[in-house]
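Entry for the shared binder. Reason: the reviewer on the internal report wants the predicted structure included alongside the sequence.
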Amino acid sequence: MSIDWIAGSGAALHGEMDISGDKSISHRAIMFAAVADGVSRIDGFLEGEDTRATAAVFGQMGVRIEAPSDGVRIVHGVGLDGLREPSAPLDCGNAGTAMRLLAGLLCGQDFDCELIGDASLSKRPMRRVMDPLMRMGAQVEAANGGLPPLRIRGGRALRGIDYTTEVASAQVKSAVLLAGLRAHGETVVREAQPTRDYSERMLAAFGWPIEFSPGIARLSGGHRLRASDIAVPADFSSAAFFIVAATLVPGSELVLKNIGLNPRRTGLLHVLRAMGADIAEERRNERGGEPVADLRVRHARLRGIDVPLEHVADMIDEFPALFVAAACAQGITRVRGAAELRVKESDRLATMAAGLAELGIRVDETADGADIYGGTLRGGSVESHGDHRIAMAFAVAAQMSRGRIRIADVGNVATSFPDFDACANAVGLQVGRAT
């Protein structure tokens, strides 16, 4: 049964917030710990459906993972050659990160396996991962058009390659690097547009020799991963909704604690500041090898801008939140170079454009972006199309609307931020389940 929200204008946002752990890092921490030698502890693990699906996948392959408390996992690693053949398909749920990275990690194993996902994941393109892996010697089969499920044939000898990515995707880069762990020779990944380096940083933390800098990463096969304790920072993509809400709602001043500020993840901060946002970084530190800081966000009036192309890849998951900020800004915000939004959990360009139009905001779509005309939001009903970030973005939009907004099909919010509504209400927003 579909779950809907009713959201409306609440109070100014005040206080301090602890945001759940970073989803991308939680996925990788489970994966790398599972194939490391020894026992690893993960603190700050995101208790979302996506990340739990990744943990369950490794449980199917013989890895013992304990959960002594919320946000903690103890992973008994089996080494790169210790995974067991699963007796059933490996269900990645809604997690594109899990499926693409697993394809790279598993294509050099000695056993066959099949990666499946939910209806949304089954529509997401996998050819971008399959092509470089097959160039390395892997045998990966998919449905027509390169869609899941993925069938991986084991027992293939992999060789390192020098690969230049065709799309700006940290998932593609990571899949190739993970395949390189079991490949003969050196694997190099080059990017015209640098993407987040979570995998590179974590491979180094687990003791694998790797060289990387923005736009290039290289490693050789034949080494071992050593168990490591990982502290996962708070998820910037989840924080983004509250950054935008506190910016938009008059009288707000909100502190978001220990937010991960990987430089390849924080394009939204640069763009919002260029629009006039008041966001200060305090208590800068490092957590799990990643830069973190508290973000103090105060209400500010925003103006529309042309979003710089160099920030697009660094905020690809934050565009639904940005669209809401743009809808409330003075003037026009222009986005280009964001065609990747059309192949996320939904076509986010089309879904945000349709939803904002329903709420009285003009949005002119282009093939790779949109022009958003700032205006006054009205109440109405919008579809999230089962996309967690779309649902949360419209909950933020409701705080600035003249009437309440009904947001349909929000169940998938549990994949990345299962307690979003409770956290939102605690700091002044108004979000509740429709009856």
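Summary line for the report: The longest strand covers residues 278-287.
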